[in-house]
Amino acid sequence: MLEFAIIEPNTLTSIGLEHLLEEVVPGLTIRVFHSFSEFVDDTPDLFAHCFVSSQIFFEHSTYFMARKHRPIVLSNGDLQPQLAGVFTLNINQDESHLAKSILKLLDHGHGPGEPKHAGPPPQMESTVLSLREIEVLRLVVQGYINKEIADKLNISLTTVITHRKNITEKLGIKSVSGLTIYAVMQGIVEADAI
What confidence tens digit (pLDDT) does each residue in 43-94 have? Predict the structure, then answer.
């Protein structure tokens, strides 16, 4: 029997996703966690997939990327960056499209049978940012300068500048204020963390 986890602080989102998953994949065991600590205090390696809020994923990306089964990051719209090797699910769709997207993800990853993972996740969004670019973006919008970002991430100043250049090219956003709005709207950072 497949077990899925939903790690989402928003109760309404959790309930809706749980209900939809139960309809789309009958017999599925679903556990809901409202925080990352609640999830890791349980038995996280039991779950075939974890549906994770983008904020929790970005704060704990190193943990999730090291897991045997990759998470499905809950995005808030069409502009959510597609991360290399990470499944994303746009939760701002009508119910039928959301159900189809879930089935597509499950068919590619873990369906009712055995795990497939035959290739990269389906490209459900258009912009591809690496995990490192997301980390740099988070620090930029939190007000860190390039040197501080380099020190925090243990990378060179040149590498930070390259990541910033790649981010602005991929997103088409050049100002820090524009990047900040984008990061808040996509759940990469919370408004009160800025």
Answer: 888 888 889 998 888 888 888 877 767 788 888 765 555 565 678 888 888 8
| pTM for this predicted structure | 0.61
Percentage above 70 pLDDT, the chain: 80
- Rounded Cα distance between 47 and 85, Å, is 18
Please name each of the domains of the chain with its CATH number.
3-108 (3.40.50.2300), 130-193 (1.10.10.10)
Q: Label each residue of 28-94 as H, E or C.
A: CEEEEECCHHHHHCCCHHHCCEEEEEHHHHHHCHHHHHCCCCCCEEEECCCCCCEECCCEEEECCCC
